[in-house]
Amino acid sequence: MDELSVSIAHIVQRLRGSSLHSQIERHAKECLHQPDIKLDSLKEDVRTFLKTTGWERKLQNAVYRELHVLQPPHHLSAPPEHLKEPLAYMRTAQACWERRVFKSLNSMSSELEVPLARMRPAAEQKDLTDKWNEMGTDESDLSRFRPVYAPKDFLEVLIGLRNPNHNSSDGVSAKSHWGLIQVPLNVRDIKQLRQTYAELSLTCGQLGIDDNAHIHPDLFENEYVQMGNKVVLEQNSAASQQYIRQGCPTELRAELWALTLNATNQPQDVMYYEQLKAGVIQHDLLVDNLVYKDVKLTASNDDYYFVFEDFLYQVLLCFSRDTTVLEHFKYNSATPPKSYIEGKVGDEQCAVFYPPNGVIPFHGFSMYVAPLCYLYNEPSKLYSVFREMYVRYFFRLHSISSSPSGIVSLCLQFEWLLQTHLPQLFYHLRQIGAQPLRIAFKWMVRAFSGYLSTDQLLLLWDRILGYDSLEVVAVLAAAVFAFRAENLMEVTSLASAEAVLADLSTLKVMPLIQIFLFATAV
Amino acid sequence: MAGKVKWVTDIEKSVLINNFEKREWIQVTENEDWNFYWMSIQTIRNVFSVDTGYRLSDEQMVNHFPNHYELTRKDLMIKNIKRYRKELEKENSPLAEKDENGKYVYLDFVPVTFMLPADYNLFVEEFRKNPSSTWIMKPCGKAQGKGIFLINKLSQIKKWSRDSRTSTFVAASSGKEAYVISLYIDNPLLIGGKKFDLRLYVLVTTYRPLKCYMYKLGFCRFCTVKYTPSTSELDNMFVHLTNVAIQKHGDDYNHVHGGKWTVSNLRLYLESTRGKDVTNRLFDQIHWIVVQSLKAVAPVMNNDKHCFECYGYDIIIDDKLKPWLIEVNASPSLTSSTANDRILKYNLINDTLNIVTPNGELPDCRWNRSPPRELLGNYQVLYDEEQALSESAERDLRSRAGQPLGSKSSKASAAPRPSAATWK
Q: Which InterPro entries does the UniProt entry name for this protein (chain A) (predicted)?
């Protein structure tokens, strides 16, 4: 079999038995009663019917979605773990990190004598049902709970990564890498980035730049918004994804993101969300406390997001129960932790994934959801968009892999851009003990959520979706350093460098990215 | 500079004092010769009172109009708005148009309100029309949510009037402790499931002609407790009142953001979830009701040339995105609950001073009150009666000279709303 037929077979297998499949089948059967469906041209007539009623477009969008999560064709004889992560040392490092995280979760459970999971008594179930819309007012004591890990713990692990087949010398020379990440991965130079991000160039109209109040809307914005309305009308994921590379008009963003992600909100999606909610009400999980704690520590104190505290619980608690999230571990270097029913440790028959979605939240996790609350005021819709964003992008920001969108590559990309284009700055910061990545890492792990103002963050995430890559996050991190380079050259300590970069809420991201990519001398 | 401005204040707030000091103005006491007095509403009463009042010189300026209470006392504001509507109706103004239910199409922007005890019978009549409604009782002369309570049964108000006759109602008979009772907006727009109101700042430099400015950096104040319209919660004031002064006593009060959300966040959220057109319409309507409320009081306001005023407008938006004017404060709080709040209020005072005392120079009450655009800071012109008049005169001239037939249609399209140019 060639690569194409492998992909086709895979997608067919994925869509067979999906609810889309049964819906299309049902409509096809129903249309047989219509007078314009003739027996002698049956196949053609049914096809035309599916096309005119929009089912063909829905099928196209579903296929497009599968193409996105499907990995590039790989060698047929390659073992499945290569789909997760081709490099053995990365796999080992990830496994080791997972063990550490899960161990600390287990010890939290035993130290605090809180079980990993328990059935809620009926009274508590009722109580939670009543309070579903105001979980934020619950004053349970969370002081005993600590986040399992914070981004800086994860950074230490990444710094320690080494490729056993590669000898990296420690001396500082023009050829050596001055940064903290010492593994050889391919990252792109500015010329290559310019090719990829062609739509961000100085000659292209751009939301986040050309919609500025001083620029007449007839020059770009009005026509661009009109085009956006057409894209929405067409309901085509591929067109939508291409369109949002130049940014989403605010009033179309919710629709365009959902379309690009093929995150639907049909009755069956709403029902599925209700099932997850029922799961939250029935069982109490230890990780719920980590969610509460994280929201209280981050979003609840945030000028932009505190309003949405309750929505965050409604999304994140359901997320932890969602076993469909497990599918993404086929292409995620991480592996969901397993827990064993009491007394049966090691017995695979009695193993369950924990938490049920296989994702242990860490400090800042809720910030992946928070910006989406500006777009969707219906929890089920908010949920389906978040889940899709997570299984496409966000998981890569906290698992160790060699993927170009993975956090290791982003760190390396950031460091290389800085070393290549701002060598003086990099050298200076390195000399005073302020490695740039120590500052930029937290931005990148959260894809800048909680650091930028929301309107700017959404413009950045437009490009993540549009280019189907997190690379732009590393570019922005480097661009921020470039923008503040003058001040940074004057600092003499890590603390003062951090102070210079403490407040990013006034930055305009698109001009920064555009100038860095297209106006930097190469 | 001809001389340094001598300032006094009886409101010891750093956002004020820092602004005066930044201008290198000189602090004096109220008994000395002063040019600029930022005073409380208690003091303004004395400054302009018949017995103790002084004659202000051309080089003196104060931050209140003598009878600002025509706008800022809840009962008087309602009275003035009601009178304004009647007058427009009498003039057959298109602004006073009513819909099939007898409601004003353009002037229905305050919740149905009655004075108590004066309008008690009218209130009872209205209450009986809709016995399931909830009403909110507010003392006329108090601010920051003091003395406010909700009722949904006539018996409650009877009990209140019995009880208060022995205590505060004594004062009420003298008119000072009167109450207003307003229909409670029970379908507020909720964001994240929470109720909020809008606090907007509006600067008036003259009432005749009317010149007013809207501050761009208003904010939403959120309730820290979830909003449930059930009546069992009626006693929990935190749910219903969004005043920070009240909310600060709630357990959930957050000192980082103080329950405040910027208007730009609100705009982003509404544009994203409801669309740009409806969002623009909402903000246009808010601007509209501010201007109308000011026009309603302009004829009765003592337009003293030494005065300007920075009002705090409280507005609630309902779930149909209709804004309702709740009340206007003459002395919006200058206390800063968070770091961002301090920056906002510092800038508010700064921009206000830049307009009323251009270049920080000695005030001159005969100033032309037409600051150049670059001095406005975060203010934008909301309405400039002078300019609007000259513009409409120009329009009239043009249409008269141009096409006599077209003049009718151009008038029709200009009414009922003034051209948006005045606040955009």
A: Rab-GAP-TBC_dom, Rab-GAP_TBC_sf, TBC1D19
Q: DSSP letter string over B349-371?
A: HHHHHHHHSGGGPPP-TT-----
Query: Nearest C-alpha of chain A: how many angstroms from B248?
Result: 15
CB neighbours of A378 closer than 8 A, spacing ≥ 6? A265
Distance CA(B122)–CA(B109), nearest Å, equals 20
pLDDT at A347 over 80: no
The C-alpha atoms of residue A455 and residue A251 are separated, in whole angstroms, by: 12
User: Chain B within 8 Å of A302 (Cβ-Cβ)?
Assistant: yes
From the list A250, A310, A454, the residue facing B265 with the nearest CB is: A454
Nearest-CB residue to A303 (from B257, B269, B279) = B257
What is the reported pLDDT for B3? 81
Which residue of chain B is at minimal alpha-carbon distance from A133? B193
Q: Tell which residue, B199, B168, B228, B172, has the closest CA to residue B311.
A: B199
Taking phi over 0 as left and psi of -120 to 50 as alpha, with beta for the rest, B229 belongs to alpha
Closest partner CB to B340 (pick from A249, A303, A454): A303
Substitution target from A224, A295, A298, A303 for chain B, most B beta carbons within 10 A: A303
Q: Report the gap between the CA of B379 and the closest CA in chain A (Å).
A: 16
Q: What is the DSSP annotation of A325-368?
A: GGGGGGTSS----EEE-TT-TT-GGGEEESSTTS----TTGGGG
**Residue A137 confidence class, pLDDT cut points 50, 70, 90:** confident
Q: Where are the beta strands (DSSP E) in B100-159?
A: 113-116, 135-139, 149-151
The 10s digit of each residue's pLDDT in B245-266 is 555 555 556 767 778 999 999 9
Q: Which of A142, A225, A251, A314 to mutate to test the interface with B (most CBs of B within 10 A)?
A: A251
pLDDT over 90 (residue B10): yes
Question: What does the pLDDT read at residue A171?
Answer: 53
Q: What is the model's pTM?
A: 0.89
User: What pLDDT score was predicted for residue B415?
Assistant: 38
Across the interface, whether the CB atoms of B192 and A376 are under 8 A apart is answered: no
Task: Give tens-digit pLDDT for A389-442.
Answer: 999 999 999 999 999 999 999 999 999 999 999 999 999 999 999 999 999 999
ipTM over 0.90 threshold: yes
Is the CB of B273 less than 8 angstroms away from the CB of A302?
A: no
Residue A467 near residue A393 (C-beta atoms within 8 A) = no
Closest chain B C-alpha to A364 CA, distance in angstroms: 17
Task: Quote the Cα angle for A335-A339-A345, to 5°.
Answer: 120
